[in-house]
Design a protein that fits this description.
With 162 residues, this protein is an alpha+beta fold. The protein is 27% helix and 28% strand.
């Protein structure tokens, strides 16, 4: 786990990938609507398969830990030099004491909802490593009022790929 995640970057547009993840989520979790809001230029040089994995992990985390039957928001905004992706869900906030460790391997923020099986605690770790491999970052905020928001920032051109 110390070697990082290998990527194979190529030019593509995140629009299609966001809609693909939305459609997959609707198929597997029809009770969890995914609201998609895409703005600006979402093209860049990234590893499409790895970003699919990142988005799938974040949306899956929202499905697993969010309030049942509430919508999940998937937003992406293209800026001048980067693209920012947000995944937002409602539900019990992540305890503040856990937030600094949320992206550590084999750690879970909280037990999964009783009606859903828990994972190994690798999804958020993998998401962070994929963001890092692209020269980007991932953060999280969580509160009762605002919900839980994961924010991924990706430079348009992966480091070393341009």
């Amino acid at each position: 786990m110390g070697g990082g995640i290998q990527i194979d970057p190529a030019p593509f547009d995140l629009n299609d990938l966001c809609w693909q993840v939305s459609n997959e989520t609707e198929q597997t979790h029809p009770d969890r609507p995914l609201r998609v809001d895409l703005r600006g230029d979402l093209a860049g040089v990234w590893d499409r398969d790895r970003l699919h994995q990142l988005l799938d992990n974040l949306v899956g985390n929202a499905v697993q830990h969010g309030e049942p039957r509430t919508p999940i928001d998937l937003r992406a905004h293209g800026g001048a030099t980067d693209v920012v992706i947000e995944v937002v869900n409602r539900g019990e906030p992540i305890p503040p004491a856990i937030l600094p460790f949320i992206f550590d391997a084999f750690r879970q923020a909280r037990p999964a909802h009783p009606s859903r099986a828990g994972g190994l605690g690798l999804g958020l770790f993998i998401a962070r490593e994929i963001a890092r491999a692209h020269g980007g970052s991932i953060t999280v905020t969580s509160s009762e009022r605002e919900g839980t928001t994961f924010v991924v920032s990706l430079p348009r051109g992966t480091v070393g790929a341009i």
